[in-house]
Design brief:
There is one protein chain. The chain is of the alpha/beta class and about 500 residues long. The chain contains 19 helices and 16 strands. It has helices spanning about 20-30, 75-80, 90-100, 100-110, 125-130, 135-145, 170-190, 190-195, 210-225, 275-280, 285-290, 315-335, 345-350, 370, 380-395, 415-435, 445-455, 460, 465-485, and strands spanning about 5-10, 10, 50-55, 60-65, 70-75, 115-120, 155, 200, 230, 235-240, 250-255, 265-270, 295, 300, 305-310, 360-365. A 6-stranded mixed sheet has the order 8-9-12-11-16-10. Strands 7-6-3-15 form a 4-stranded parallel sheet. β13 (about 295) and β14 form a beta hairpin. The protein is globular, with a radius of gyration of 22 Å. The protein starts with 6 loop residues before the first strand and ends with a helix. Residues about 405-415 have low confidence and may be disordered.
Length: about 500
Amino acid sequence: MPDLPEQIQGLPNISGHESDVAAAMARGKEKSLSDIPGGVDFGRVRAAAAIALHQHQPLIPAGGDDLKTAALISNLQYMMEHQDIGDNHNAPAFVWCYKRMGEFIPQLIHEGKSPRVMLEYSGTLLHGLRQMGEGHVVDALKNITMNPDYNWAVEWLGMPWGHAVAPSTPVQDYRLHVQAFQHHFAAIFGLDALERVRGFSPSEMALPNHPDVAYEFVNTLKECGYQWVLVQEHSVEQTDNGWHPQRPHLPHRLTCTNSEGETVSIIALVKTQGSDTKLVAQMQPWYEAQGLERWELAGKQVPPLVTQIADGENGGVMMNEFPDKFMEAVRAASGTDTPLMNGSEYIEQLFALGIKESDLTEIRPVQQGKIWERMQPGDGPDKLEKVIEELKKEDHQFHMDGGSWTNDLSWVKGYENVIGPMEEASAVFNEKVLKPGAPTDDARYRNALYHLMASQTSCYRYWGQGLWTDYGREICRRVMDIVNYDFG
């Protein structure tokens, strides 16, 4: 299998090898993880813990003084070059945070320990590190991803390339982000490594709850070869009674039905409530697992998995306390009945006991129960919009903006002045590039896609008004210019 080039004409490899990528994801479904060197004895596991580190830096038009002409560079590069501003003095520490798993994992394995970590790095961060001359970070990650002495301890999670939030990103664009990440990942770490990417982590844990958008979200993941998704506890409800998951430490089955009556489902691991980086920095999931016993599932006694994700670099606790706590927890957990495990490894071991996907408790995005009380799947999108409007009028807490890190954070309200340009850029890209079927290996296509995805980074809405909004609007303007110039 030929390796894919990491960069093509100065841009990351984000399109043009769709068949190679799809084939690698399909091969991954046929391969077992059970013979990994540091595998756990699942039969004696009482409970386990899984941690994931989320790492992201956006691309911003800040490589120069004039916003209209400034080069797109990593926000990390800007921080590095302007360490006198705000918290930018943290930039060197951030670089270390992005690299350090490449050092911790080999050290622990050489000690005879059995470390585990799930990693989720945005495409914009990986590209930005290369672009700014910090390629040593990527090389350290390549060692623990490609070297069989170490890669059994590390599970990479898929994500949207540009850190786009699913509820407010046009569904056709979101699919491009998902595929672009797979391309870029395979180009850096190889197609063999892509075969082991089975789980998906949505940016900001934002799960669409609008039935048609949620259906497209899960359908995209399934069609792109993913086997499971990470969801936030308070962004889902049990289908049978509308409650939040009662046993969050067991896998669930996320099922989404759209207004046309189509249904799709995927295995979901539930990240318990709380987005505080201290939870992961202090290895709280492992300490919680120590207090748990096996639970009954489908007539079998199975170990629960305490799952948590956090930013891998933000905050003093994560920057300074995490290394010692991670080392301490790995050393204490290795070989015990409360080990660290990664998500795919756990699911595979669970299914090897005879558990089936149909045995898992069914969940759906929050608030959907209220909709299906008033309409039937198959009643169509017009009826759906009517029901949503009725519910909004009757209940001020009802929304279809999607669940996220915090229950009350809307990804749509208050951001109209940046979502307007985003939607406009997306519409032009759709009309002039996607619909006519522009070849995905064309340099013009790759350039337009690169800018479109950079414009859809969550940071451009998360921070509200000001400089970040200006950045977002400027990248959208460039998307329009590129598409109109190159595609007429």
